């Protein structure tokens, strides 16, 4: 099995090496990651300038750094390394739960894999005052990969590890509202700066990714690329029976003048 690993914390993040060491038990590993941190970059791609793909020394692994986004890294990585079976993204230094999935660069790398017809798994962990204890997380990381590596029906999965796991749970994404707050500050010479921060407005609902991590469970959430609101679509289709194209044809027909209509009938005769 060929396993491509990326992240959004940058090529030198300790999380990417921790993930690569465990992933190497399941197949051949190659690392392709941003040259600098790209946290909260979301699914941005670089279209306005060329990208560089440069090999660097990184432990025992073949590794490349890219001056682009996590999605760029996966696109370039799969271009240079054919027949990739699985893309792993992480381990991110900080959780990616609930609404943060919308702007997570970690999850974007996994989504890029799914968009390319591959399987993608994003992996993140909580961060306290110190760097995460990857040795403590290693047994749970191995269990999660053992669970998901051969699960070929799931193209996109989001995994979050608490600091002290007590087990693994299947969860759904928490979609409760959050508060986006602007915090003003100043740089060393007094010029204004601004920080954008978010926090949940409501408590986590049981069975969601946020709830699981808050209760020290490893959260495993299958996701999908299709953002269609199925219930709203079904309601709209039930309320509006006539397709839009029929309405357009009817409007065009009634707009014809009686004189033109008579000429067409005469021509048929």
Keywords:
globular, alpha/beta, 32% helix, Stationary-phase Survival Protein Sure Homolog, Chain: A, nine-stranded mixed β-sheet, two-stranded antiparallel ribbon
Task: Give a quick summary of the entry.
This protein is α/β, with parallel strands linked by helices and 269 residues long. It is built from 8 helices and 11 strands.
Give helix % range. Answer: 25-40%
Oligomer: single chain
Computed structural class:
alpha/beta
Q: What gap, in angstroms, lies between the N and C termini?
A: 71 Å
**Count of separate structural domains:** 2
Overall 3D geometry? globular
CATH topology of the largest domain: Stationary-phase Survival Protein Sure Homolog, Chain: A
Structure description:
With 269 residues, this protein is an alpha/beta fold. It has 2 domains: 2-227, Stationary-phase Survival Protein Sure Homolog, Chain: A; 232-268, no CATH class. The protein has 8 helices and 11 strands. It has helices at 14-23, 70-80, 105-115, 134-148, 209-214, 230-239, 244-254, 258-268; strands spanning 2-6, 28-34, 53-58, 61-66, 86-93, 119-125, 156-161, 168-170, 178-186, 192-200, 218-222. It has a 9-stranded mixed sheet with strand order 3-4-2-1-5-6-7-11-8, sandwiched between helices. Strands 9-10 form a two-stranded antiparallel sheet. A hairpin with a 2-residue loop joins strand 3 and strand 4 (61-66).
């Amino acid at each position: 099995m060929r396993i491509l690993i990326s992240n959004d914390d940058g090529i030198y993040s300790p999380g990417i090496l921790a993930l690569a060491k465990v992933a190497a038990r399941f197949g051949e590993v190659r690392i392709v990651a941003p040259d600098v941190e790209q946290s909260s970059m979301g699914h941005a791609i670089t279209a306005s300038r060329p990208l560089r793909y440069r090999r660097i020394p990184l432990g025992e692994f073949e590794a490349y750094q890219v001056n682009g986004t996590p999605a760029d890294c996966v696109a370039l990585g799969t271009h240079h390394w054919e027949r990739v079976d699985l893309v792993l993204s992480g381990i991110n230094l900080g959780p990616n739960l609930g609404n943060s999935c919308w702007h997570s660069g970690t999850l974007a790398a996994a989504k890029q894999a799914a968009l390319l017809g591959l399987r993608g798994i994003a992996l993140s962990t909580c961060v306290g005052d110190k760097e995460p204890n990857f040795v403590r997380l290693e047994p749970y990381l191995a269990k999660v990969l053992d669970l998901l590596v051969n699960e070929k029906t799931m193209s996109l999965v989001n995994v979050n590890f608490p600091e002290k796991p007590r087990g693994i749970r299947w969860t759904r994404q928490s979609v409760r509202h959050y508060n986006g707050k602007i915090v003003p500050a100043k740089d060393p010479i007094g010029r204004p700066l601004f920080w954008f921060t978010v926090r949940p407005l409501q408590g986590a609902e049981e069975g969601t990714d946020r709830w699981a991590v808050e209760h020290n469970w490893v959260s495993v959430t299958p996701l999908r690329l299709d953002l269609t609101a199925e219930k709203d679509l079904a309601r709209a289709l039930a309320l509006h029976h006539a397709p839009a194209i029929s309405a357009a044809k009817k409007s065009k027909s009634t707009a014809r003048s009686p004189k033109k209509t008579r000429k067409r009938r005469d021509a048929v005769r």
